[in-house]
């Protein structure tokens, strides 16, 4: 017989409502959520075990919508360390995944790792060989031979890009990651390292196979091309123009914001030396662009870009840039599930969805840094941290 577990807290946020349920509770049976209501409405015979998290808010498990399993920005020169050996990167990835899970991240979307190690990690978690969030993975990132992309692999021309996507999908990738631009503007415009035709090939090939396309793209003509051609998710968008924000709002493209690589000194100071000054120089401009995108009320998801276990910081940054606490919370849950294409499975506390649940101390609607104080993590009905 499957045990029925009641989890109760001082508050419950279901992932979509703009209000909390006072003295909220839910019942899990096996992997799924069965009932969500106030404690007073719970039938007393409907559960076998009680987990009491008074003083906490129950909410959906968080989703890091942009990360890399094997990346560790706390390491000196960490971008160059992405060229470490595959065994070293894989061991690092297993440590980072456990750190993510214990911080309340029940789903990760990885935007490329070396030699399909993200696919291996995804399967290892499924088979209970290692501890970590469920993973939605891109496999090998696709960049131009002369373009940006520390975690990407170089491909030239439409045929190579088409083959790379097919190889990724045959290996088990869930979506496609391409690199269109660099990250910083520097002293000039933002060139597109992929041609319009190459971007179109990546999108058409992926869509024909039924998968989404994500792109590292911060602005410039490449962003215009990507929006015109039907890009699914826009990663970073650091130098997006007002015109492009308007265009984005009319498109089906979903933005994924990653404030930490610009605003978190610990990350910036661990870049290769020749990149550090530029990130500080462009911080104010990029902050202004993210603020404008947030003010446009375009739904967005959030990612750490490898700052494992610190997704709460991304929420803090976007709130400082003008987002409401509700917008930030939805970016970490329901919007993230949409980006990952798993909104029917997780991202909100609704009967029938997976029991991906966390309890955070306090009320994140009032203090977004409550997300830092995770007291319970449940993934697919299994308590992994209490």
TrEMBL record:
Pfam families tied to this protein: Amidohydro_1
The organism's place on the tree of life at top rank: Bacteria
SUPFAM superfamilies: Composite domain of metallo-dependent hydrolases, Metallo-dependent hydrolases
InterPro entries attached to this UniProt entry: Amidohydro-rel, Metal-dep_hydrolase_composite, Metal_Hydrolase, Metallo-dep_Hydrolase
Domain Amidohydrolase-related stretches: 57-384
Coiled-coil region: none
PANTHER family per UniProt: ALPHA-D-RIBOSE 1-METHYLPHOSPHONATE 5-TRIPHOSPHATE DIPHOSPHATASE
Record's protein name: Amidohydrolase family protein
Source species: Autumnicola patrickiae
């Amino acid at each position: 017989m499957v045990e029925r577990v009641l989890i109760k807290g001082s508050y419950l946020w279901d992932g979509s409502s703009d209000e909390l349920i006072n003295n909220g509770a839910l019942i899990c049976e096996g992997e799924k959520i069965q009932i969500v209501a106030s404690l007073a409405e719970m039938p007393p015979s409907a559960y076998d075990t009680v987990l009491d998290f008074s003083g906490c808010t129950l909410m959906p498990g968080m989703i890091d919508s942009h990360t890399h399993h094997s990346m560790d920005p706390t390491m000196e020169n960490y971008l160059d360390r992405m060229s470490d050996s595959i065994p070293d990167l894989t061991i690092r990835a297993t440590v980072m995944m456990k750190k993510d899970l214990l911080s309340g991240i029940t789903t990760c979307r990885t935007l490329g790792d070396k030699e399909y190690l993200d696919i291996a990690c995804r399967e290892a978690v499924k088979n209970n060989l290692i501890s970590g969030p469920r993973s939605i993975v891109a496999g090998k990132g696709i960049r131009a031979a002369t373009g940006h992309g520390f975690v990407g692999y170089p491909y030239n021309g439409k045929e190579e890009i088409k083959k790379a996507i097919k190889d990724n999908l045959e290996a088990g990738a869930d979506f496609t990651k391409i690199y269109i631009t660099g990250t910083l503007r520097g002293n000039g415009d933002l060139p597109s390292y992929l041609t319009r035709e190459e971007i179109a090939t990546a999108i058409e090939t992926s869509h024909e196979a039924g998968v989404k396309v994500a792109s590292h793209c911060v602005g410039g003509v490449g962003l215009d091309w990507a929006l015109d051609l039907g890009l699914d998710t826009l990663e970073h968008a650091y130098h997006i123009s007002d015109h492009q924000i308007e265009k984005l709002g009319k498109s089906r493209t979903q933005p994924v914001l990653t404030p930490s690589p610009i605003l978190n000194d610990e990350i910036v100071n661990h870049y290769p030396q020749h990149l550090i000054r530029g990130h500080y120089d462009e911080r104010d401009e990029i902050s202004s662009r993210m603020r404008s995108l947030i003010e446009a009320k375009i739904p967005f998801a959030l990612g750490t870009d490898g700052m494992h276990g610190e997704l709460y910081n991304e929420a803090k940054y976007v709130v400082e840039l003008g987002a409401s606490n509700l917008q930030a919370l939805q970016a970490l849950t329901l919007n993230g599930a949409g980006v990952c294409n798993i909104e029917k499975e997780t991202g909100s506390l609704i009967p029938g969805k997976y029991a991906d649940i966390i309890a955070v101390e306090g009320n994140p609607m009032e203090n977004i840094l409550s997300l830092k104080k995770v007291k319970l993590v449940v993934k697919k009905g299994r308590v992994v941290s209490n």
